[in-house]
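Lay summary. Proteins are chains of building blocks that fold into shapes, and those shapes determine what they do. In this project we predict the shape from the chain. Here is one chain we studied, written as its sequence of building blocks.
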Amino acid sequence: MKDLQFANTIATLRKQKGLTQDEVASFVGVSKAAVSKWETGLSYPDILLLPKLATFFNLSIDELLGYKPQMTKENIQKLYAELSKDFAVKPFDEVYTRIKNMIDEYYSCFPLLMQMAVLLLNYQHVAGDLQQEIIRKAIKLCQRIEENSEDQRLAYQAGSLEAHCQLFLQNPKRVLELLGDGVEPYTGNEIIVANAYQQLQQPEKAKETLQVSMYQNILGVLGIAPNYMMMYVDQPEVFDEVVLRMEGMMQTFDIYNLSFNNALIIYLTAAQGYMMQKNEKKAIEMLKKYIKASESIVFPITLHGDAFFDLIDEWVMRELDLGPNAPRDEQTIKMSLISGITENPILKPLILRPEVKTMIENLKHTLGCD
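And here is the predicted shape, written in a compact code that computers can read:
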């Protein structure tokens, strides 16, 4: 109980309420000396006395002991950002140990468990020999949320994250168990919700509902595109058409500014695809666009709307667990922008070209990673 600062807690509570040690002792049924020892940390009350003490001070037992089983959204965001920065400068084992301790302390705080699973997955690439353990740890956290959380949205997110992990571990059957084996028909619920807000004379909520839906659907299409693109790498004409349409969509909605990560993945995937087609000219063209997008990134990175999606920012702050903050620290993001090219085996033949070497060096300089 020393770690829970029980002594300070009970002394502070008694003084705040203007009570004497005799009054506390009389109510609980112990001596004044016993209360004095509690307040000085020389001894602690019998566990059977805790409910009576908590009742006396009108607190829960957790509050009496100074234990908070839940963490606020704001504190989860701060902790995530702090741990993310630690991964960039401290040994992985040290940060991982702290994460495990936080998980043990807040094992019933499911939003925290979710973000710790996300954090571990975002840094599993630097875990070395612990990578498999990290993936399995994330799966266990997701399964605890799925089985115990009463928040259906959080449980759904945990199931999706577990499916991602299971796919990494090459367990496709489990993925289909979690997510189903097909695509459900589009229901258009957001249109119904928007109309309901209209009937309630809340036009701004109706606008936000539709705008957020458009925003997510656009990013969803761009997120699916790289996988879809690679399905047609052996059909150059179809591959070209997918690249062309995605570029058009990115230009129309200014994706460089709105969600640069989608643009980066599409250009990098396109470069890989063209290399597989032995089309180095187009591969270099895609790399140039990847580097241009990388050099246009404004740090620190935040998720935000723009002049068209002008109702997104408030929704991001309100609904997303990490708010507008990036899921990885700035230095790790910068290094991954470079390693996406330099450590990509499919692109290796291009890296030896003077033109590409110069582009990479310029990117390193722009990002401050010389």
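What the prediction tells us: The chain has a mean pLDDT of 93.
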